[in-house]
Automatic annotation (TrEMBL):
Keywords: DNA-binding, Transcription, Transcription regulation. Pfam families: HTH_1 (PF00126), LysR_substrate (PF03466). This is LysR family transcriptional regulator. PROSITE patterns: HTH_LYSR. Residues 1-58 form the HTH lysR-type domain. GO terms for molecular function: DNA-binding transcription factor activity; transcription cis-regulatory region binding. Transmembrane segments: none annotated. Belongs to the LysR transcriptional regulatory family.
Amino acid sequence: MNLHALRVFHSIARLGSVTRAAEELHISQPAVTIQLRNLEKEHGLPLTRPQGRGVVLTEAGQWLAAQADRLFALEANISSSMEAVRTGRSGSLKLAATYLPANFLLPKMLARFRFDYPDIACTVLTSNAQTACKRLLRYEADIAFIGSMRTFPPDVRCELLLEDELAIVATPDHPLVGRPVTLSELVRGTTFVLREPGSSTRDTLFALCRARGIAPPEAALQFSGPQETIRAVIAGLGVTLASSLEIQEHIAAGALAKLEVPDAAAVNPISCCTRTNDRLSPQAEAFLHYSSPIL
């Protein structure tokens, strides 16, 4: 079908006049008439008939006008939707994240972002640091928020989002709360609740012990998840090294307290990562403006 002729006919049908259609389309009246006749010839049916100084639609013309309404409405919708995608107002956004940013940073960022961009569909894929990095490089994610990783592949560009303080925590009634204690004293005289081997906080604790020539604490109590570990400490089973992001609500509620261990100071870097020398989608560009944490 000749879409130009259909567009001309659509104007005629909507305005009820060849003359007014010509004015709207900024073409001559004979050119409008030629397009109408070509369309009628193509389908072998009259589409209009004269009435007064204008035209009315035949039955075939009414049906075709209704289809043209649908077609050109769809065209307008496609154009506006593509423009929204191009400018980042709609479309999709895929984020990869490790546990801490996925649970304690991204929800607040996404709440602000979705308020301004309600038509962008957002997906958060939570995994360990290595998997999050791979998802970014495989184009399975637009941006990755990665904690505890200090060395990245050359194809990954990173900006430090924040340094999450690691602290040793216990119940508020623990006898060591409120006075300074060394890591050596703590390891010798206190039961530690440990994370599983491979956990970044466990690795950090053991690295602190090695740096000070201290034997690491024995795994008398070990849990394979951060929340399980923290709840064990709240239950009075010992102390642990934990992220400030994880424990802030428990400290505010009076369920946990930080111990003063000056020689156990450590931070967990959380980075915002994108692909090096790769242009971000408009949706990802828009989200980056919301990627400052609210703590």
